[in-house]
Specification:
The chain is α+β, with helices and mostly antiparallel strands. The chain has 1 helix and 5 strands. The protein has a 5-stranded antiparallel sheet, covered by helices on one side.
């Protein structure tokens, strides 16, 4: 589940952490998100969080298509307005 997303990266919560480690390259796939749609983004793991409140991975996007970057920015703006 995506908890926090911006044009630089995303935090993904996980019920159980897998064998991924900080520094590993992964592909983050975001599915059917409002405004953004479905995209796969090459990323690197910057942070592994194992706290009860926030267990998951902080990913930094390595390459991001400009049109996807705009969609993410629009999504963030809409979320801020909603709150």
């Amino acid at each position: 589940q995506t908890v926090d997303i911006n044009e630089k990266g995303v935090f993904l919560t996980m019920e159980t952490l897998s064998a991924f480690e900080k520094g590993e390259e992964v592909v983050a796939t975001i599915r059917n998100a409002p405004i953004i749609g479905t995209v796969s983004i090459p990323s690197v793991i910057l942070r592994v969080s194992s706290t009860i409140e926030k267990q998951g991975y902080g990913l930094y996007f390595l390459r991001l298509n400009p049109s996807v970057r705009r969609k993410i920015a629009l999504y963030v703006i809409e979320e801020i307005k909603r709150r």
